[in-house]
Write a sequence for this structure.
């Protein structure tokens, strides 16, 4: 389910690169994003209790609110390696800083791939020595970076947006181990807007909560991943409300791109929970539905088994919903098909029509719980044999 309708549009003041340094056989496996000068920065990291070494070091560096470069390798995650992993992550920052003639604390490291494999530091060193001759502000350079951070992704992902005179560009990777909280994928966002760190951090947190934290492919939360936003100020000040709206929209587009390219995914579920008495109720029920293997497999097979939605709502014990309050709506507009207690009594539920709607590539579903006026949107996917094929032999 490929996206990226147009080539990436580079943002002024940022240079990109991606190349193969031998961690993978042939595909790109080493990327660098560098700004012309230190940037206001914000970052959100995985909430895993066992974060990778790059996350630990990245948190230290991002906490200062200023970054100038990001260095990433793929295939090896640098997770579960103790003190050696931390030393290697810091060495990545040091070598990158030397190449760019900046301080190591301005570099944020990232590694993605198999857990437990040590980084091949001789290859990482080779990559950092090539930084000066490979960085470029071109669409091709952005795409090479986006490809270098991929693992099981089938294609690179990027999105552009604007806000007044300022521009936004985001790239992302992630196809499995996706139920961000935060994050289970890598996403790097750059802008030439002028926004200070504290405001930028708050904006990014809200944007992530409304996008990457609303998706699920397989319910697994990664040890490694992050969303980082850098602002170099070259375009000057912006309307901050408008900027945040555009930032959130860009993050939502990237989040949906990740779901569409999930391992074994053939269908995107756009789920709306409405009629909740609080955002917390909507979020609990929404995650229960999009994380349900029974719902995901039913969607894959276009099986109109609405009872699985009843099950997923019912197991959210802290927010009970009576059957008489519940309505499940498949599709939109005139073709929408509903399931509720009254239609069930009248034997008026059209299962064949629901099955037809479930055969689409993108499936809008609304679950009304009849308790209030809060609504939230989530994005999930089907579960196919392709997911098993991708993950049963991942390291072999």
């Amino acid at each position: 389910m490929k996206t990226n309708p147009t080539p990436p549009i580079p943002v002024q003041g940022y240079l990109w690169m991606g190349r193969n340094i031998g961690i993978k056989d042939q595909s790109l496996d080493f990327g660098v994003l560098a700004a012309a000068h230190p940037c206001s920065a914000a970052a959100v990291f995985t909430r895993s209790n066992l974060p990778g070494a790059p996350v630990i070091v990245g948190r230290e560096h991002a906490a200062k609110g200023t970054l100038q470069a990001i260095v990433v390798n793929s295939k090896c995650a640098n997770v579960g390696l103790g003190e050696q992993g931390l030393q290697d992550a810091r060495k990545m920052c040091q070598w990158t800083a030397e190449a760019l003639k900046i301080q190591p604390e301005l570099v944020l490291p990232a590694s993605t791939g198999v857990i437990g494999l040590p980084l091949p530091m001789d290859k990482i060193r080779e990559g950092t020595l090539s930084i000066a001759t490979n960085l470029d502000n071109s669409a091709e350079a952005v795409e090479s970076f986006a490809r270098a951070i991929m693992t099981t992704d089938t294609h690179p992902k990027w999105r552009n947006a604007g806000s007044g005179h300022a521009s936004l560009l985001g790239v992302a990777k992630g196809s499995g181990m996706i139920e961000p909280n935060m994050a289970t994928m890598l996403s790097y966002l750059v802008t030439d807007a002028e926004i200070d760190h504290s405001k930028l951090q708050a904006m990014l947190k809200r944007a992530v909560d409304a996008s990457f934290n609303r998706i699920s492919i397989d319910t697994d939360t990664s040890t490694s991943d992050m969303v980082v936003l850098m602002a170099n100020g070259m375009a000057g000040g912006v309307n901050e409300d408008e900027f945040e709206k555009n930032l959130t929209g860009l993050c939502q587009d990237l989040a949906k791109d990740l779901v569409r390219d999930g391992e074994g995914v053939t269908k995107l579920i756009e789920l709306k929970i409405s009629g909740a008495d609080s955002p917390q109720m909507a979020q609990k029920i929404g995650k229960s539905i999009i994380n349900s293997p029974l719902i995901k497999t039913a969607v894959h097979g276009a099986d109109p088994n609405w009872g699985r939605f009843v099950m997923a709502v019912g197991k959210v014990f802290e927010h009970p919903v009576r059957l008489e309050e519940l309505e499940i709506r498949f599709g939109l507009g005139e073709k929408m098909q509903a399931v509720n207690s009254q239609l069930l009594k009248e034997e008026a539920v059209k299962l064949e029509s629901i099955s037809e709607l479930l055969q689409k590539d993108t499936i809008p579903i609304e679950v009304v719980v009849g308790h209030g006026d809060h609504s939230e949107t989530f994005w999930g996917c089907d579960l196919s044999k392709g997911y098993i094929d991708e993950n049963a032999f991942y390291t072999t």
About this structure: Residues 240-260 form the longest helix (21 residues). The mean pLDDT is 92. The chain has 13 helices and 13 strands.
